[in-house]
């Protein structure tokens, strides 16, 4: 580092303060020293090592899915994160890719389960990507006339229209509600990919290459122009930035990445169903991107991994407890300082639970007769902690409503009152979790995905890895 | 001819429901410039409130109170509950984001819609619930027009919607609250400087819009019998289309737009194909956007630098 004089040193005091101290400073320093390409190489290396460690077919599939969602989030990031266009038609391009691959490599166009087109992947995938790119241009052209909210709803309709089309038009070829099945394995040049681990490595290569390309795009003239467009389209157009062309490009590029993910998804699944491309999946992809950080490549990848792994953990009663109690603990540790208060709150939560359980058990033994939903050691640890009656469904529903009211109340309180209110809220959350939420992991997952969107936007709009953006001018 | 009149009546019925929903969209858009994606789900919550009111009073086959009173209670509770829900949404989700980048409240709205849909699924189960309207409102006691029987539910929906729309019109044009709503819609900062309580006005706008959505939800349950936790999504999309066709931000526009969408839907269902009604509505939306983006009653937006 170049020598600096006293004035510069004084001028940079703010930066030094922002750097923080202790391990945060060390982390920030290390972060500043490692270049972008080294990081990408590191990610690839970690991915390769992880691939060697994944021995079981289930974990291999989960790993593939998390990379798939990372890829989807990367594609969505182009329009949403960089160009600032709320593209809700993204799911249609994912579906287009999947259906495109399915039609070009199955008996769908043949009759009676034979015939049809069976292109090798090296031909079918580029063909699908071209179609998706053109479709993206068309949607982009429609989008040119629309601003924020209009764009959002029109593109949401595009996704809905895609579902209608695959459900109703030509069920002979597209399979209607039954979908298409029995697709060819991914094959080219005599080689083929069929095993889950093969798909994992394929997805890893794709994510790494895609991240490299997108990084180049982000730092290019086009990337800068997109960000100018996002911050203020009018100013951007005054600066002679071709706003219309850039919007169409953003849609088209996003569509291509989405379709690419779709082809791999179809090949790995071996089937495509219309229900794979509903608005729920769209929200899931949004949750990945928003959690990781809108506008950040690393954030999109991290978001894809975190959300998919979290979803997987939720579906198993053994791991869901780790996720839930772990999240609460992390939230408490991050939000409550100094550690004395933290210790008081955690102690209070534990004491409250055992006290409440003991009191309720003394009054009525049937009110605590139910078993907690968690299994494993967490289940036995909370057996004498949470109150679960013998028939927990109605009780759990009431608690769920109470929990939401408590969370809203918590937002209104500040200072010591908030600290005190945290204790019963956490306990209610634990009771509700053990009696109701964990019993319906599928619904709980969906609620949590929606909650990710709301909470991230309210508490940390830049997500985990994004950079904070300041709106300069309100129209 | 008979089929034609029947189609018109059906179209008016759904059109009125869309118009009530579209009013909520257009009012919220007017004061906040925010597209409330969760509005369709408020309508769904209204339908569920109505369902549980029926079961509270003995169920569709063994009602303990007279039917008009029941319908009144359904409307009142759905309006009140949904209104409070809308106010809570505004207070805790949208207000903190009022000065955030434009995309942030939209993403929050998606999240709220998703949470509402799945919370209802968690609380009330995933089965389609049936209002069983015919067991307490007989389908035969209606009026005859040109050989077509219009049953009482259809009359109820059309009358209630028209009354509510006229009431809203009076509210916006004649009362102080309406005046402050118009002022906030025109320029929020200037309104604040003139001493208008902007937060209260916005909260009340959400209350009124959501209350109308709740009543629309109850009426949809009465008319179509079947409710589920996903009915809000498509209804919301179509109502938004109605608001856009009429000109977003314009109250008469939302009414006309809603009825237009309802009629085109019922005509395409009976004369073209019922499978593609959604696509036809979508086509109308795209066509409006391309030909007259400000809608029938809207004024072209002026972009300020």
Q: If you had to describe this structure to a student in words, what would you say it looks like?
A:
- Chain A has 475 residues and is an all-alpha fold.
- Chain A has helices spanning 6-11, 13-19, 23-33, 36-53, 57-82, 90-104, 121-143, 148-168, 171-174, 196-218, 221-231, 233-238, 243-269, 279-292, 297-314, 317-335, 339-363, 376-381, 392-412, 415-435, 441-459; strands spanning 180-181, 186-188, 191-193, 271-272.
- Chain A is 72% helix and 2% strand.
- In chain A, strands 1-4 form a two-stranded antiparallel sheet. In chain A, strands 2-3 form a two-stranded antiparallel sheet.
- In chain A, a hairpin with a 2-residue loop joins strand 2 and strand 3 (191-193).
- In chain A, helix 17 packs across helix 20 (415-435) and helix 19 packs antiparallel against helix 20 (415-435).
- The longest helix of chain A has 27 residues, at 243-269.
- Chain B has helices spanning 2-32, 39-56, 67-94, 103-124, 152-174, 176-186, 188-193, 198-224, 231-246, 251-271, 277-291; strands spanning 129-130, 143-145, 148-150, 226-227.
- Chain B has a two-stranded antiparallel ribbon with strand order 1-4. In chain B, strands 2-3 form a two-stranded antiparallel sheet.
- In chain B, strand 2 (143-145) and strand 3 form a beta hairpin.
- In chain B, helix 1 packs across helix 9.
- The longest helix of chain B has 31 residues, at 2-32.
- In chain B, 48% of the residues are buried.
- The mean pLDDT of chain B is 86.
